[in-house]
Every structure is written in C-alpha cells, then in structure tokens.
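One record is kept unedited as follows:
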Amino acid sequence: MTLDVLYFAWLRERIGQPRERIDTDAATVRELIADLAARDDWHAAAFADLAAVRCAVDQQLADLDASLAGVREVAFFPPMTGG
C-alpha cells in the first residue's frame, strides 16, 4: 500500500523532511515504524525512543498497534502537553 507519512517537530528535524510518500507492507503503525527505521540513520534516530513518539492515523490519534488497513495518512509527532 502507499501511505503519506508526515513528521512534526523534532521528528521532522531528525528525518530532514516534513513528509514522504512510501510503499509498505506494514500491517500496523509499529511495523511501519520498523520499516522506516530500517531505511537510514535519520529515520532510525527519529524512532529510537518509541516512548517519545505519538501518531495519528488518518488524522485520528492512534496507538502504535493500530491497523493500517485502508489508511491513507500516518503522522508522527512528540507527546503533547497542555497548560
């Protein structure tokens, strides 16, 4: 499947781009992260600490075990804080 992957904040800085379109066989977000981290050192550095990564699947917050079936977009960003 083809996905649009978006990166925000320090993830974008580590990877060096705000978005990319990829082809993947990943079934879950966690598998997608493994595929991305295996691409190069920049992706590996961005996803080195999964506790510091949150995601949204088709603009809905999701956990790392969320299915990618029928998904068009996955976004990655650091944890949010409020105040």
